[in-house]
């Protein structure tokens, strides 16, 4: 869930992440994604997904490894939210 106009903290990947947009849309360094679109991210991608204006962005994301957050607060919260 990403509120309109808000961003997910800047992060990279230690493995594969598949993100399917269920509602709304978001944009990041690789392009724009709307309902039904699938973003495939691997170890090479560092990005900051930002929800577009309008409906909140709801996505289903599946990963095979933990994310790599750049900022301190998300790194500290990571063990609690298990991503």
Model description:
The chain is mainly beta and 83 residues long. Helices cover 12% and strands 40% of the residues. The protein has 1 helix and 9 strands. The chain has one helix at residues 72-81, and strands at residues 11-13, 17-23, 26-28, 31-33, 38-41, 46-47, 50-51, 58-63, 67-69. It has a 3-stranded antiparallel β-sheet. A 3-stranded antiparallel β-sheet has the order 5-2-8, with no helix packed on it. Strand 3 and strand 4 form a beta hairpin. The protein is globular.
What secondary-structure arrangement, pairings included, does this model have?
Layout: E1 11-13, E2 17-23, E3 26-28, E4 31-33, E5 38-41, E6 46-47, E7 50-51, E8 58-63, E9 67-69, H1 72-81
Antiparallel strand pairs: 1-6, 1-9, 2-5, 2-8, 3-4, 3-7
Question: What is the overall silhouette?
Answer: globular
Estimated structural class: mainly beta
Distance between the terminal alpha carbons, to the nearest Å? 14 Å
Query: What is the number of beta strands?
Result: 9
Main sheet strand line-up: 6-1-9
User: Helix coverage percent of residues?
Assistant: 10-25%
Strand content: 35-45%
The average pLDDT value, as a whole number, equals 88
Q: Total number of helical segments?
A: 1
List SSEs in N-to-C order.
EEEEEEEEEH
Radius of gyration: 12 Å
**Main sheet: strands, sense, barrel:** 3 strands, antiparallel
Low-confidence stretches: none
